[in-house]
Amino acid sequence: MTDETPWLTREQLRAWMKLVAVMELLPAALDQQLQRDADLTHFDYMVIAMLSETDTRTLRMSALASATNASLPRLSHVVSRLEKRGLVSRCPSVDDRRATDVRLTDAGYATIVEAAPDHVRTARRFVIDALSDEQVVQLDGIAKSLLTTLDPDARFAALTYPRDEDDTAICEARLTGTATD
């Protein structure tokens, strides 16, 4: 039996080990700030942030799973936890009684409005501000390539969010509590 494993070159291994370190350190740094300042995990934050960016603050569970890049079982567990805290509520979908919608409560909206500024500062500090504008564009391209491989069926919304037609000011206004819609 011959070993036909395509081992990594030294340069590939360097890049891989740096990516592994980022995958370990960045989630912990984001979680630490959100836990300290808002008693939320990063995934909790993403759930309520995605709900806050809809006109009705409501999404079907399957759409919310796509928006947060999560499996339905993981999302269901987190929604249960957020529901116990009064940040979201579940209800049968008005369009399809077999489906479940998740709605951001007023308390959940107040939580995201309060948490968003510090979270954005943290994301900027650890990622965006550490890169030049050109590197941010490169990061977008690299992440797109990786996501296309990891999610070939495009089940998750990360590849298309925010859409080109989305008004940045509206997304920001919803997260800062200044939206009028």
Describe the structure concisely for a colleague.
The chain is mainly α and 181 residues long. It has helices at 10-38, 42-52, 61-67, 72-84, 106-126, 133-150, 168-176; strands spanning 58-60, 88-92, 100-104.
Written account of the structure:
The protein is mainly alpha-helical and 181 residues long. It is built from 7 helices and 3 strands. It has helices at 10-38, 42-52, 61-67, 72-84, 106-126, 133-150, 168-176, and strands at 58-60, 88-92, 100-104. Strands 1-3-2 form a 3-stranded antiparallel beta sheet. Helix 2 (42-52) packs across helix 5. The longest helix has 29 residues, at 10-38. The chain is globular, with a radius of gyration of 19 Å. The model has no long low-confidence stretch (mean pLDDT 90).
Q: Outline the biggest β-sheet.
A: 3 strands, antiparallel
Uncertain regions: pLDDT < 50 for 5+ in a row?
Answer: none
* Computed structural class: mainly alpha
**SS summary, helix count:** 7
Strand order of the largest sheet: 1-3-2
Output the keywords:
three-stranded antiparallel beta sheet; globular; 181 residues; 3 strands; mainly alpha
Ordered list of secondary-structure elements with their pairings:
Elements: H1 10-38, H2 42-52, E1 58-60, H3 61-67, H4 72-84, E2 88-92, E3 100-104, H5 106-126, H6 133-150, H7 168-176
Antiparallel strand pairs: 1-3, 2-3
Helix pairs in contact: 1-5, 2-5
